[in-house]
Amino acid sequence: MGMIMGRKTSFLVVLVHWYLSLATILCMFTYCHGNPNVLCRKRERAALLTFKESIVDPSNQLSSWIGEECCMWKGIGCDNITGHVIQLNLRSPYDPYTAYEDFERLRLGGLVNDSLLGLKHLHYLDLSSNCFEDTTILSFFGHLQNLRYLNLSHACFVGGSPHQLANLSNLHYLDISDLSLQIDNLEWLSHLSLLEFLDMSYLNLSKASNWLQVMNMLPSLAELHLSACELDKYDPIPYVNFSSLVVLDLSSNWLPDSTFDWFQSLTSLVTLDLSENYIQSPLQAAFQNMSCMRNLYLSYSNLSSTMLNLLCNVSTLERLDLAYNNIQGVIPDAIGSLSRLRYLVLSGNGFEGKLPRSLGNLCNMQFLDLSDNKLWGDVYGLLGNSSACIVGNLKHLDLTLNKLSDLAQNQIHGSIPSLSFGNTIILASNNFSGPLPLISSRIRYLDLSNNSLHGSLSPLICEHKDLSKNLLSEELHDCWMNNSQLEVLNLGSNKLTGKIPSSFGSLSTLMSLSLYKNNLSGDLPLSLQNCQYLEIVDMSENHLLGNLSIWLGHSSANLAALVLRSNRFHGNIPQELCHLNLLQVMDLAHNKFTGSILRCFGNLSAMVRLDQDTLAYFSEILTVHGNPLSLVTKGTEHEYNTIDTIGLVTTSIDLSSNDLIGEIPKELTNLNGLRYLNLSNNQLHGKIPDNINAMNLLESLDLSMNNLTGVIPQSIANLTFLSYLNLSYNNFYGRIPSSTQLQSFSALSFIGNHGLCGPPLTPNCVGDDTPLELHQDSGWIDMKWFYMGMPFGFVVGFWGVFGPPAFNKAWRSAFFKFFNGIKYKLFGDA
Ligand SMILES: *[C@@H]1O[C@H](CO)[C@@H](O)[C@H](O)[C@H]1NC(C)=O
Ligand SMILES: *[C@@H]1O[C@H](CO)[C@@H](O)[C@H](O)[C@H]1NC(C)=O
Ligand SMILES: *[C@@H]1O[C@H](CO)[C@@H](O)[C@H](O)[C@H]1NC(C)=O
Ligand SMILES: *[C@@H]1O[C@H](CO)[C@@H](O)[C@H](O)[C@H]1NC(C)=O
Ligand SMILES: *[C@@H]1O[C@H](CO)[C@@H](O)[C@H](O)[C@H]1NC(C)=O
Ligand SMILES: *[C@@H]1O[C@H](CO)[C@@H](O)[C@H](O)[C@H]1NC(C)=O
Ligand SMILES: *[C@@H]1O[C@H](CO)[C@@H](O)[C@H](O)[C@H]1NC(C)=O
Ligand SMILES: *[C@@H]1O[C@H](CO)[C@@H](O)[C@H](O)[C@H]1NC(C)=O
């Protein structure tokens, strides 16, 4: 007991010390910033202006840098008494939600001028998240010897070890994460004896094997971040004594197992992140002496069975993440003794058996994710028992993809107990049956999809509601008023009947509406035009009809995907579609549309050019909406979800199986960003446009079952990404050159064209001793391109266009932060 008290006290001392110095630094810079009573020093003002001259500032962030009063300029702070400039904060106003394009624009660029060294009294310097040109100058900052805070993270600097930073003996905070530095030795760090915070994440430290030795010499170090540093070894040291450490992040490395032996000396540790390592040792000893441990992140670390039993003794735990390891067996009852637990993630392991009743005793629990395991049995202890105190706290519950059975048949008279807690409930892909439960109006995110719930549906107030893939069978009642917060509604794959009620028009915040695979019939309600924010609409496989023009003409400027396949829509294709500047997926297949394909489709700008913005927009949409989009591409149905769209954006027009007539408008070839085009099974005539090659991202082209004619244009040979081509059942004529490697295509079909000759249709053409090349200028295809192995061509070509930004580390990390942000936003703080 005495020992524990002793350790606690020393930990408190450290913590208090650490917070105090943080407070000193922070308040020093708040009060001095923009103090009108202080006059700016002339020489420092001149230095700042010289610095500004060489900076490139596209969004004019330094516009306030004019006039005499430099202490009032944006980002500058002066000492109250002496008037010296002591703070320069030019951190780019970037946050994870910033669109890539804005991010570029908000960053400062250009050269960092020497004049900066004229600011001899500088305590605080933050240039993070900008991108300067003279990127090898990291050592330059070693001259600013009064610095206490230096943040250069994410700012494009490259080079070797910044030895000169050893001069910054006053430094308390150093953040040089996410730079491209080749660091072979960290000796220089050991001179920074006041250092309390160090972040070198995303630097390659695989050559700096003295990292542990150096960290061990920093007596005040309280927070250390070395995530994704390619750490796979360290020089052994006799004695590990950096016991003031409170936060340690070593995630995403290849740490050797011996690392965990010295963990027992880290007695003050409060937060430890070892996720994404390959841990083979049982970690038994590591946690023995960590009497302050509160936050433990161990996901994706190859941990095995005993781990959870072991951690049930660490009674101080508040957050525990063991997602995606190899932990098997039952969840131990002892988990109930972790009474402070607020956040528990055990998803993606092999947990089986029943949920322990003791979970119900965890009264502080706010976030519980047990998804993707093999749990079964009832959830009575968790949800049904109103005296179990977990229910009063829980905000987020995710039990997806378990085998938790039907409470109904077990204890609770035929239904899931009313869901009266939390703001996020995910019970998807289980075996729940019985009628829909009563659902509390506090729930913001509800996913009960893929169960066997039946009965009728009452409108519920929440932001995200997914009840798809159940057996809901009644009419949709016309009482969707008062749902002013609903953003995502998925009722797909049920047995709903009747019309879409006109009160859907009062869902003014709706962004995603999925009603696919039901028995809905009748006209679309005109009131749908009030849903101004719709981004995804999927009503496929119903019996709907009605006037699309009025709806599309009035709302839907945000529409990115419109999927109406397999309904009864008829009449001309509405002109209003052409005004949908963000439309990337248009699926009108299997309806009764007549008339011709609109020339103005060539103006669908989101398909004209595929760029970063389009990519980001669509990925974001599918992430927020959480529903994969089901489309027929290359002949089979695929679900497009975020994983696909991180790499590849889906752009698709499917007008197949209608009654369209006329020619294929040549304007369609403007769509340089289109990947899938299906015009099959109509009555189109005329030729394939000569410049079909302009659609240079086309992967799949299906023109089968029309009345098209003429020779296949030579230019089709330039479509290097094409891997599916179906021209069968038309009136094309001319030669099909022989090919031995058609199997590298997912499909290639020319049958049913009586004028085509050559393999694979006929052994040869009439008068066939002429070499193939001679036919070229008469418009025949040289099928050489068919031999190339299209998938390879596509990968090389696509990543040639999109690769550099997509693989750029900064961008990538921003992107993933963005997704994390989204998750956070949806699931709330826990
Ligand atoms: C600096 O000025 C601010 C307000 O102008 C004042 O509140 C603060 O106490 C001053 N600090 C010192 C150290 O004089
Ligand atoms: C450094 O700046 C980045 C933003 O550019 C920020 O996320 C990070 O927390 C800062 N580091 C410190 C130690 O304040
Ligand atoms: C830890 O021990 C080393 C010697 O092995 C010493 O140089 C260093 O100052 C010590 N660090 C602390 C924090 O006591
Ligand atoms: C860790 O705890 C064990 C006993 O539980 C003790 O023998 C050992 O000395 C402790 N190690 C440190 C570094 O405090
Ligand atoms: C309901 O919860 C209370 C408190 O946790 C517990 O004592 C009781 O045994 C539970 N009842 C059932 C049937 O699980
Ligand atoms: C496409 O847009 C341009 C410019 O907005 C316009 O001039 C042109 O007429 C449009 N084309 C069609 C076919 O609507
Ligand atoms: C084009 O549409 C038809 C009819 O809807 C379908 O059978 C065919 O598989 C589709 N082609 C491709 C390449 O997806
Ligand atoms: C090409 O289209 C025809 C008619 O739509 C279809 O019967 C055939 O299966 C398709 N060929 C391939 C390889 O998909």
Question: Helical percent range?
Answer: 10-25%
**Structural class of the secondary elements?**
alpha/beta
CATH class category label of the domain at 573-580 and 587-778: Alpha Beta
Q: What sort of overall outline do the alpha carbons produce when their principal axes are compared?
A: globular
- Strand % is 15-25%
SS summary, helix count? 13
CATH architecture term of the domain at 573-580 and 587-778: Alpha-Beta Horseshoe
N-end to C-end Cα span: 31 Å
Within CATH, the superfamily of the domain at 573-580 and 587-778 carries the name Ribonuclease Inhibitor
CATH topology of the domain at 573-580 and 587-778: Leucine-rich repeat, LRR (right-handed beta-alpha superhelix)
Largest sheet: 27 strands, mixed
Mean pLDDT: 78
Q: Which ligands appear in the coordinates?
A: 2-acetamido-2-deoxy-beta-D-glucopyranose
Number of strands: 50
Uncertain segments: 1-34, 407-415, 642-648, 739-743, 770-830
- Output the radius of gyration: 32 Å
